[in-house]
Amino acid sequence: MTKQSLKRTINKFAIMASCAVVLPVFAQQPAPAGDIEAGKGKVFMCMGCHGIEGYRASFPEVYRVPKIAGQNAEYIVAALKEYQSGSRTFPSMIAIAHSLSEQDMLDLAAYYAQLK
Prior knowledge:
Blueprint: H1 3-27, H2 36-40, H3 44-50, E1 56-57, E2 63-64, H4 73-85, H5 91-98, H6 102-114
Antiparallel strand pairs: 1-2
Helix pairs in contact: 4-5, 4-6
């Protein structure tokens, strides 16, 4: 084994050892949580469509607005992030998602998830 090869092997072991120490610490960190009370103060932009049972939006096309009360919080956050990234394409939701921080999304999701 050459000196350079030995050095690379030692570096690989050092990296693996540090990952063995660091990764469990990250794995123990709780997922960021939303605040239900904060979410309650942020729902004004959602209520106009999602607060009306059986509502159908008419712009840019007729669209059945889904009920989000009681929906899984992780799903709500994922959907908002997809609107923000452009992988979901309903225009009003894209505009709303772009106005939200990640904490706003978590708060809104926590609020809607606890509703029945």
